[in-house]
Amino acid sequence: MLGDPSKVKWVPLTAQQRFTALQSGEIDILSRNTTFTLTRDASLGLHFTGVTYYDGQGFMVTTKSKIKSAKQLKGATVCVQSGTTTEKNLTDFSRANKLDMKPVVFEKQEAATGAYFSGRCATYTTDASGLASVRNRDAKDEASCRA
Asked: pLDDT tens digits for 122-146?
């Protein structure tokens, strides 16, 4: 495989498909933004290797919303990808801060960001690095979003 790109087969998977594909042998390794948690390490029969990147979760809002803190998102609709740690963290954060956020859940990240940019959700949440990537790639006006 090293030195011969034809030896690698890339398999696109959703967040919900990734662990099943690895457990079944459909794929040999999983290389993507997957949060290393004790539950996943202990219950899935998988072995996480060394962490290659540390990140944190954030929220993206429009500049015109004038929102400066996630704690100002009381009752807000939030676009989020299903089957991710991000989805669980959103629920936990909303409950802990009594924000009553309303998740709008999508299987694919592209659908979640598309819904956010079309105005279906007041905010979009994922890893901070993912927010920066989406903002730079998809925002029509770079000044229109804050992550």
From this structure: 999 999 988 998 888 776 654 455 5
Could you state, in order of their start, the residue ranges of all structural domains in the chain?
A: 13-54, 57-146
Which superfamily is assigned to 57-146 in CATH? Periplasmic binding protein-like II (3.40.190.10)
In the numeric block, the tokens 């089957």 are attached to: 83
Q: How far apart are CA 22 and CA 43, in angstroms?
A: 14
- pTM recorded for the entire structure: 0.71
Look at residues 56, 114, 113 and name the one whose alpha carbon lies nearest to residue 89.
56
Burial 72-92 (b: 16+ CB within 10 A, else e): ebeebbbbbbbebbbbeebee
With the C-alpha atoms ordered 89, 111, 117, 54, is the resulting torsion angle positive or negative?
positive
- DSSP E strand stretches across 100-143: 102-106, 123-127
Q: Scanning the structure block, which residue is given the tokens 């060394």? A: 50
